[in-house]
Amino acid sequence: MATDYFIAPSATSLQNSVWISPDPLAQEREILGGGKVNVESLLLLEARPCAGESDAEIVAGARDFERINRRYARHLKVLAERPGGALRNDAAAKALLRWAAAERAAWLEAVTNDPLLPGRILPSDYLGQQAWRRRVEVLRDVGRQLAVPP
């Protein structure tokens, strides 16, 4: 299977900014059209691994998905610690507010380190999609919790 790789080196070093994609580069070719490209800042290559490497192996070698999954696991733990019940007093409201701040921080820590790749090239044990679905459910429940009069 041929895989297209989008390689965009920085102006000074090919090693510091290399991007790969399993998608064809037809749109990028069209956008660049007949324009002159500065090869010191942008280089597009279409390539195919020649030693049998799969897209998943290339992605796993390029990113630390164990670390990414640890951050999503931490976020899932924070989601599970949401204070429940009606907000009948200031203490309950403050507890929910503290939880919301912790949830947001855990989510941002996880998602800002995630390359957010297409599902078809993610490792099979990737937790990002599960964390996203659970976050949507929990935040929906928080909305209902806030809507209940004390």
Task: Describe, in plain words, how this protein is organized in 3D.
The protein is mainly alpha-helical. The longest helix has 22 residues, at 90-111. Mean pLDDT is 82; it is low at 1-15. The protein contains five helices and no strands. Helix content is 49%, strand content 0%. It starts with 25 loop residues before the first helix and ends with a helix. It has two domains: 14-48, no CATH class; 64-147.
* Poorly predicted sequence stretches spanning 5 or more consecutive residues: 1-15
Question: What general form does the structure show?
Answer: elongated
Number of strands: 0
- The helix/strand order is HHHHH
Give the domain tally. Answer: 2
Strand content: under 5%
Question: What is the C-alpha radius of gyration, as a whole number of Å?
Answer: 22 Å
SS-based structural class?
Answer: mainly alpha
Mean pLDDT: 82
Compute the number of helices. Answer: 5
Distance between the termini: 60 Å
The biggest sheet, with number of strands, parallel, antiparallel or mixed sense and barrel status, is: none
Helix fraction bin = 40-55%
